[in-house]
Amino acid sequence: MIPINRISIILCLLIFYVGNNKAHAQLWKYIGDTPEKEKAFEKELSKEASSVITRKSIEYGDTFSYDTRIYTIQSFDGHPAKISLWEKPFNGHVFHVDMPGDHLVIGDFSGLARVHHLSSDILEIVYSPRSGSDQGYDNVLLLGVDKGKFCVLMEILSVNEYEMPGEYGLYQLHLKLSGKTADNYQLALHIRDLVKSNKRKNSFDKSSNTLLKFDKTLHVFYNETKIMDTVAAMYDGIGNTKKYPMKGIYPRIKLGVYDYFFANRLWYAAGKDTTGRLILVPNTVNSKSKK
Questions:
Q1: pLDDT by residue (tens digit) across 257-286?
Q2: C-alpha neighbours within 13 Å on the C-beta side of residue 288
Q3: Which residues pair with 119 in a beta bridge?
Q4: 33, 88, 256, 259: which could join 37 in a potential S-S bond, CB 3.0 to 4.6 Å?
Q5: β-pair partners for 54
Q6: What is the DSSP letter of 281?
């Protein structure tokens, strides 16, 4: 049986991240620490960037600086692609992922935790959504480019850490890419799921391993496919929903209680509402953006 607090965590992840205070998962080890450690963390984020451009924004009558980090990867069709990552101050906690001709945004954004070239054609972006004061999340987004458009190869929860009276929980995922090209890519996931509780029967420490295959046509990692014939409630990332007919075979990443489907060029966290209807919630959405 899944403890009630873990069910609540999953439901919150599926609908939205709430809370007036912010927690940062891995980031909370750095934010608010000494200036030297914060500077070292910012330097680490930019280590693999091909360039960093400092821009200025006027908000509330004052001028603020923010960095645009630019990363270069090889597209799947053999061309160099430059990807810009940036967040404007005081603009609703929205993070932008840009390239000429395509744009993605991540809402309710707290901060970057890691940016890394997983290979010459895959960029790994680990980021923290905003969350409650005693809970922190990281999501991992794997990004590629094909024919001038973004490919969201995978986007799943990688860290969920929380603390409450009498209980501490940690869900942590590590990934390792094997293979040299899209023809033979595989992604190994190692997952640790830990709960330490004053109630001994609620405590556990589990580990599991999962291997994801790569579909070089859709450009996604997955461990299952599922034949679907239903109408899902699809969220758009800004609070709106629409009916989304799902008919056919859909790539899926199934990791215990966490479930994700690839549809409409994006990965969606999946769950069911009280009526049993499938709901799909994205973290990253397609959008137009301006610097």
A1: 999 999 999 999 999 988 999 999 998 887
A2: 0
A3: 122
A4: 33
A5: 67
A6: E
**Straight-line distance from the first to the last Cα atom of the chain, in angstroms, rounded to the nearest whole number:** 48
Can you give 194-254 as a three-state secondary structure string?
EEEECCHHHCEEEEEEEEEEEECCCCEEECEEEEEEEEEEEECCCCCEEEEEEEEEEEEEE
Size of the chain in residues: 291
- Selection from 229, 237, 291, 256 nearest residue 57 by Cα: 291
Place of tokens 């403890």: 3
Render pLDDT for 149-167 as a digit per residue (tens, 0 to 9). 999 999 999 999 999 999 9
Judge whether 177 and 213 are in contact, CB under 8 Å.
no
Whole-angstrom distance, CA of residue 222 vs CA of residue 219 = 10
Element (H, E) at 40: helix 35-45
What pTM does this model have?
A: 0.86
Percent helix / strand / coil, the chain, rounded to 5: 10, 60, 30
The CB density around residue 138, as the number of other CB atoms within 10 Å, is 24
Which H or E run includes 42? helix 35-45
Site of tokens 């972006």: 125
Which residue numbers in the chain have pLDDT < 50? 1-31, 289-291
Question: What type of residue sits at position 277?
Answer: R
- The residue with tokens 């929980």 is 169
Q: For residue 82, what are its two tokens?
A: 């430059």
Sign of CA dihedral 70, 71, 72, 76: negative
Residue found by looking up tokens 């001038």 in the block:
148
Domain ranges of the chain: 4-284
- What three-state secondary structure class fits 35? helix
